[in-house]
Amino acid sequence: MDILKENERLDDLHRNGYSIIQDPQKFCFGIDAVLLSDFAKAKKDDIVFDIGTGTGIIPILMCAKTNAKKYFAIDIQEESVDMAKRSVKFNKLTDKIEIFHLDVKNVFEKFKKNSINVVTSNPPYMNMGGGLVNGYDAKAIARHEIFCNLDDIVKATSLLLKPNGKFYMVHRPNRLCDIICTLRSYKLEPKTIRFVQPYKDKEPNMVLIESVKNGNAFLKILPNLIVYNDDKQYSDEINKIYYN
Description:
Layout: E1 9-12, E2 19-22, H1 31-39, E3 47-51, H2 57-65, E4 70-75, H3 78-90, E5 97-101, E6 116-121, H4 138-143, H5 150-160, E7 161-171, H6 176-185, E8 188-197, E9 206-213, E10 220-221, E11 225-226, H7 236-243
Parallel strand pairs: 3-4, 3-6, 4-5, 6-7, 8-10, 8-11
Antiparallel strand pairs: 1-2, 7-9, 8-9
Helix pairs in contact: 1-2
C-alpha cells in the first residue's frame, strides 16, 4: 500500500471503518489512549486539542465518537506527526483533524489563548527520575518527561482553554498528588476521577482525570474500571469501549 512506509502497518480501529498507521519498531498506541478517547467528552461545535498526539489515535477515535467541530493535535516527534497526517488522510478526515509538528512550549506560535473547548493528553508518565531511559528514541520520548513535563502540559492547557473548558488526561496513580497540585496551580479544578485496574484484585495502574478551567471544588470518584476478567479476557466494559 503506497500510504505505508518501511516497517509500518495499518491497524483496524473498529470504529467507522477507521484505521491507523503505526510502526511497531518505534511506538504503538496502548489501551491508555483508547480509554482516554472514551472518557473524554466533546459537544457539537466544540474545538478539541490533543497534546502529545503520537500517531493521532485520540483525535481519530474521538472523531468517530463525538460531534465536535474540529480537532487539532500536536506532537514533538516528526515521524509520529508524519504517520498521524497520513492516517488522517487515509481516513478522509482532513476537514476535521489537523496535526502539527510542534513543541507544547511553543504552542502559542500557532494557536490563540482561550480558544479551545476541550483538551486531551496522554502525556509521558515518568519524570526523569522515575525510570531508566534507554536513549532518546521514540519510545523513551513517549514514556519519559524528556522534552516536556506535567507542568508544561497543564500550563499550556490552562492557557488554551476557554473559561469552563475541560481537560481530560490519563496518567499513573503514583503521580496523582503531583497531578492535582499542578492542575490547581493553573486554575484547573479536578472534577471526575476514575481509576483503572488490570484485574479486580490488582491495584490501579492508570487514572483518568477530568478537570474544568475555573471550576468549583467538587470531586466525583467513579467506580473503578476493570480491564480483564479472571479468565484474562477483556471485561464487558472494555469490549464495549473497543468495539461498540
